[in-house]
């Protein structure tokens, strides 16, 4: 029996974590590790940080919670900082590790890092085994191969719902054998090159990182308030904590898995009844899957100006003045401004808001959609590479939208979704 390393990334949980479960089953001892990858804290070619203060703070909270939960089971979390392909091999040598278990990646930069780590481990005769832990449906269970996945969501959804099954989630381990893991040592925001941020009191929800908080939020939204039963009617709301599930930040960091949520939805339906709303939450999880599988299929195309289409309709220009007005909430539109001010002050924005500000950026301001996506990457507390870039490409008309061009009438949207000006009054005062 050997020692294995579990490389935690955006799967910061004990429930339904296949990499962790496999490592425990096949090893005598395991060493759980998280690496602060230097590249995640760099400035992108678009001039924005890859990780902003809100998400970094959420990450630190999530790691603190993961360490506490691991210690209850006899383990702990080892923290390193630098390049994973440099830092992980050092631990492999120190602990005489024969195998590394990690979450499988699909996006370009993440896959490149995974490959570099694998190459360095190979030199040490250490194997890297990856598990698919981020989706509701497992890629192997889809009714089509990755290259044949339909590019239109409705076609993907109908066939997947009809012909694929959702696997049972993995049980949380009951004990973990590890060598002595030193006390948790997290870098400060300052050490990551970021300033401390405080979420505005007006925020729809005060996000706090960690699996414990994710499960607490689920219990609140499902069982304490039964908000799940009216999710479909309220999901386009813009003010308050409970108009939508707000699971996105915990899902993005992997503090909770889609399969775990699905299991709880099924339990809830048994107890309180199934309806359009309980179905709709699972439907939204399927959108996450769709974008992730699209990244597997199209790879780097989602980062190109022309996206997955061959022709591009809007301008490739960048106007610094317009970009500044948009990002600071100083445009001609009060509805856009309210949303952008909320994002800047909280790291969050409703789904309805995101669609509007992206449409405004691409269609009214006529700028390169990737700059908007990169700004979101820095700001969002719930940034997920596939959902963010997939949705932006969709709104820019170069993604998976079956319609030719999706252009939001902002005034009509403001009137439909903020009729009483409640949202705008909250953020523009």
TrEMBL record:
Binds 1 FAD per subunit. Binds 1 5,10-methenyltetrahydrofolate (MTHF) per subunit. SUPFAM superfamilies: Cryptochrome/photolyase FAD-binding domain (SSF48173), Cryptochrome/photolyase, N-terminal domain (SSF52425). Keywords: Chromophore, FAD, Flavoprotein. InterPro entries: Cry_DASH, Crypto/Photolyase_FAD-like_sf, Crypto/Photolyase_N_sf, Cryptochr/Photolyase_FAD-bd, Cryptochrome/DNA_photolyase_1, DNA_photolyase_N, Rossmann-like_a/b/a_fold. The keyword Cell cycle does not apply. Its cofactor is FAD; (6R)-5,10-methylene-5,6,7,8-tetrahydrofolate. It comes from the Bacteria. The keyword Iron does not apply. Residues 2-136 form the Photolyase/cryptochrome alpha/beta domain. PANTHER family: CRYPTOCHROME, CRYPTOCHROME DASH. NCBIfam families: crypto_DASH (TIGR02765). May have a photoreceptor function. Belongs to the DNA photolyase class-1 family. This is Cryptochrome DASH.
């Amino acid at each position: 029996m050997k020692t294995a390393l579990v490389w935690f990334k955006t799967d910061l949980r004990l429930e339904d974590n296949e990499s962790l479960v496999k490592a425990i089953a096949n090893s005598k001892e395991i060493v759980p590790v998280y690496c602060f990858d230097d590249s995640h804290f760099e400035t992108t070619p678009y001039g924005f940080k890859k990780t902003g203060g809100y998400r970094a703070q959420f990450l630190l909270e999530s790691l603190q919670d993961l360490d506490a939960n691991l210690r209850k089971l006899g383990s702990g979390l080892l923290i390193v900082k630098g390049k994973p392909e440099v830092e992980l091999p050092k631990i492999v040598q120190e602990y005489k590790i024969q195998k590394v278990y990690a979450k499988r990646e699909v996006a370009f930069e993440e896959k490149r890092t995974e490959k570099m780590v694998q190459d360095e481990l190979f030199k040490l005769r250490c194997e890297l085994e990856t598990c698919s832990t981020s989706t509701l449906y497992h890629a192997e269970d889809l009714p089509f191969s990755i290259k044949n996945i339909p590019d239109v969501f409705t076609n993907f959804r109908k066939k997947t719902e009809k012909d694929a099954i959702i696997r049972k989630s993995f049980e949380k381990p009951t004990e973990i054998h590890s060598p002595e893991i030193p006390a948790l040592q997290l870098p400060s925001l300052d050490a990551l090159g970021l300033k401390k941020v405080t979420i505005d009191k007006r925020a729809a929800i005060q996000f706090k990182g960690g699996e414990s908080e994710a499960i607490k939020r689920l219990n609140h939204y499902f069982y304490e308030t039964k908000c799940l039963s009216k999710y479909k009617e309220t999901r386009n709301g813009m003010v308050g904590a409970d108009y939508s599930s707000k699971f996105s930040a915990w899902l993005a960091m992997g503090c909770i898995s889609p399969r775990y949520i699905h299991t709880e939805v099924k339990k809830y339906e048994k107890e309180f009844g199934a309806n359009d709303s309980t179905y709709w939450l699972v439907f939204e999880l399927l959108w996450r899957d769709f974008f992730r599988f699209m990244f597997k299929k199209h790879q780097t195309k989602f980062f190109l100006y022309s996206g997955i289409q061959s022709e591009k309709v809007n301008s490739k220009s960048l106007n610094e003045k317009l970009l500044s007005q948009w990002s600071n909430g100083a445009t001609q539109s009060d509805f856009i401004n309210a949303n952008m001010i909320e994002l800047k002050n909280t790291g969050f924005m409703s789904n309805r808001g995101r669609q509007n500000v992206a449409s405004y950026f691409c269609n009214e301001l006529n700028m390169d959609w990737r700059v908007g996506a990169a700004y979101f990457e820095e700001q969002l507390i719930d940034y997920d590479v596939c959902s963010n870039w997939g949705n932006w490409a969709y709104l820019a008309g170069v993604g998976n939208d079956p319609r030719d061009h999706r252009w939001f009438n902002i005034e009509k949207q403001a009137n439909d979704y903020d009729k009483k000006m409640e949202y705008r009054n909250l953020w523009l005062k």
